[in-house]
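idk why but the lab printer keeps eating my pages so im just putting this in chat instead. protein + iron/sulfur cluster:
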Amino acid sequence: MVETASSFSRPATSPFERLHKFHGGLKLPGHREVSAARPISSAGVPPILVLPLQQHIGAPAECLVQPGDTVYKGQLIARQVGAISAAVHAPSSGTVTAVEARPVPHPSGLQAPCIIIKTDGLDRYQDSESTALDYSRLAPDELCVHIRRAGIVGLGGAGFPTHTKLGCGKHKIDLMLINAVECEPYISCDNRLIQERATEVIEGARVLQHAVQADNCIIAIEDDMAAAEEALRAALAASKATDIKVTRVPELYPSGGERQLIRILTGREVPSQGFPADIGIICQNVGTAAAVYNAVIKQQPLLSRIVTVTGDGVVQQQNFETLIGTPVSHLVAAAGGYAQDVERLLIGGPMMGYTVPSDNIPVTKTLNCVLAVSREEMPAPPPAQACIRCGKCTEVCPADLLPQLLYWYARSSNHDAAQDYDLFDCIECGCCAYVCPSHIPLVQYYRHAKSEIWLKETQTKASDIARQRHEAHLNRLARIKQERAERMAKKKRALSNDDGSSDKKKAAIDAALERVKQKKQQANTLPKNVENLTTEQQQLIAAVDKRRQQNDEPE
Ligand code: SF4
Ligand code: SF4
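predcted complex ->
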């Protein structure tokens, strides 16, 4: 069954049938017509692949290769570290030339550790083709292992490791929500993915539904995705999947935000600073569903993704199947290069994306759009003016926050007050800045405040750990000292409680020594060499003894 925006007011006859509204939002021009109309093209294998060890939320992966190593397509080159982390695989065959810091997609031009592979153009796999896996025979936690090993993260933007998000058995989930609501202008990679690979999307959705044992599964698309809807319906009919529903939601930015989409489809609110799983829902991007299909059914790790290359600043606006690690410069060249009037390069869309200083950065797992804009298309914003307290930002905020107050608190570094006003519920959608008549770059203030708070928390945690270690050291020293004192006291007590047995032993030893001494003396007084004497000798000895006896007698 297909829902439309007109069903907002229809009474519900089954779960998730009625659509709900969220606060605020904006109707924005799509700018997707050109890229969405062209088929996905391959960006090919670039001469160099640059693979950051951190392409996800959580701990960076641990590098397993070194310069000089030969690697094959699909080979594990960096392993997951801890529960919230993701593995990295070689997207093509070649030789590792370096493991070093390189610029990565970030507004500041940040550098981070990367594995550099010089490709050999052969695209050789390490193992022979693997056989298809029957996921329905696997338990949820076994499925999660396959997804984890494939290094899959949320391809919709944030990059949360998918196996962690699924939780696989940790929560009772009643709805698996596949998010194909590509509400940000210019981006059309999910739209093209569904049009061309609807079967993979449906199968990936079924795997995800099985992994969390959800009773219901909805694939949500936007109202203007008619061709994608048709492809999904055809694939659903072919698969005979009766428990997956396709729902169209109105074109309103940011309907594709996780919290907003859950609100639209279920009327439920994700708790402040909580997760959808807290209310029995898991939300996964449609690209992630296709990646899960590849990981589980085809047993292939995440090696590529679809990237929209768009804007008046490139010659050919199109979607490209792009190997992870492909330099953005290579991708732009695949799109025919820059147009003459290119002004700026953005990663992501115009609302949530950011300007980068150079195209010398790699495509990562979460990079969905390269937007090269001309001056007319996106002129530089005029200088910011003072806030006039018009309240327009509050009217459009989809998170139902007070952006004006958040701005004041962020600007004055009053972080406690900013947190009291739910700064961390801000999804950085940019609606407030878009309507602000004073052109205040509000989102920049929120991002800066959030990173300052995170930094402070990290430092506090580090000093807490250091203090705990020092206290543990002092406690250990005190314990050793106390144990030593107790041993000494015990010895003393043993001596003072003596019952006389040691004196008896000493007396026995002294008596034995005395007996030995007397024996020795006796032995020394006995006459020696008195055997076999002649008569004269015996008479002589007797005379001597008699004289000695006379001499010894007292006078
Ligand atoms: S829209 Fe801009 S000027 Fe108006 S209240 Fe918000 S921050 Fe102030
Ligand atoms: S950026 Fe944050 S504060 Fe501004 S409208 Fe979006 S959610 Fe609200």
